[in-house]
Amino acid sequence: EKGGFEHFMLKEIFEQPKSIKDCFRGRLIADEAKLVLGGIRDYATALINAERIVIVACGTSWHAGLVAEYIFEEFCRIPVEVEYASEFRYRNPVIKEGDIVFAISQSGETADTLAAMELAKSKGAIVLGVCNVVGSSISRVSHEGVYTHAGPEIGVASTKAFTAQLTVLTMIALKTALRKGTIAEQRYREILVDLENIPKKVEKALKTDEQVKKIAEIYKDARNFLYLGRGYNFPVALEGALKLKEISYIHAEGYPAAEMKHGPIALIDEEMPVVVIATRDSSYDKIVSNIQEVKARKGKVIAVVSEGDSLIPGMVDHTIEVPGTHESLMPMVSTIPLQLLSYHIAVMRGCNVDQPRNLAKSVTVE
Ligand code: F6R
């Protein structure tokens, strides 16, 4: 049932070109510039008129929420707050009638996320689910929702669910933005075509596997890792760090690259691997400076860059090239080598990647 792969996690990483396609099948019709999202039909207008959006989730799903924050704010011009479900539910949050609350969850059973939704509902919010498991508790409690259709995710570390969540959230944001008039039609069309091409780009990003494995070999005994990104790649840094800690038990931290100088830079020495997600986007020049700051302190830099980057390879210890796309879609591509890196390091350290210690696939207790 692992389809020839050694672990479910690896199988699920490699399934992503297909799971992303399954996610937009029948929903994204790029040549007609159409998005069909039947799951949220009744609340599409409420979304357009929303004064604010709150996203509640945990773990990797919370990271997908952070990417969605940037996407909704950029395209729809609606203010977004992303909340850990466990914090939101216990702090008497301000929710007004008509606020939109998205709950993102692979399993659809996460206790804190479920409780956060129920609280939001009781205060008059419209609660929309983005779930993978059909018929799960969260999907049943939502007013409406859009399934991610990534297929069963067995590995405890979430991989294909994350990229499918990003696909769904991007589609919702683009559709809302078009109807709201906050995105130019030409731009909307271009991004739809880019989205349709994401599976091919993910396919290409998966070809870095052998190269990533070699890098894993070099750093598998590190005690700490730092992951840095800016803009759309900041949540990718958080997600890369989470993947590494949960399956390899190496301590890792993700940071917005510019925050580094407010503390974590003190950790950097010649022993410290720093993974920098530095693909070509609007924060490229800034992240190049951050790489220089790390190199000036002799940190080892593993950079994820766009194909054809001619500047960064000369500055860093290792580069991993991934295909470019619109910056809002980049997390779906840039996260791939980080999933592979954590996987290979964990295997080399003899860890049980599909069932890491102390973790459960769905966290049904708070
Ligand atoms: C990380 C991971 C967890 C989950 C979190 C939320 O790889 O698997 O952090 O993302 O427990 O789970 P769901 O999405 O099922 O609500």
TrEMBL record:
GO cellular component, one term: cytosol
Top class in the EC scheme: transferase
Keyword Cytoplasm: yes
Domain SIS: residue ranges: 43-182, 215-356
Gene Ontology terms: biological process: amino sugar biosynthetic process; carbohydrate metabolic process; fructose 6-phosphate metabolic process; protein N-linked glycosylation; UDP-N-acetylglucosamine metabolic process
Primary location group: cytoplasm
Record: active site: 361 (for fru-6p isomerization activity)
Places the protein is found: Cytoplasm
Domain of life: Bacteria
Record field: catalytic activity: D-fructose 6-phosphate + L-glutamine = D-glucosamine 6-phosphate + L-glutamate
Keywords: Aminotransferase, Cytoplasm, Glutamine amidotransferase, Repeat, Transferase
Record GO terms (molecular function): carbohydrate derivative binding; glutamine-fructose-6-phosphate transaminase (isomerizing) activity
Enzyme Commission designation: 2.6.1.16
Keyword check for Transferase: yes
Described function: Catalyzes the first step in hexosamine metabolism, converting fructose-6P into glucosamine-6P using glutamine as a nitrogen source.
Quaternary data: Homodimer.
Protein's recorded name: Glutamine--fructose-6-phosphate aminotransferase [isomerizing]
UniProt lineage: Bacteria, Pseudomonadati, Bacteroidota, Cytophagia, Cytophagales
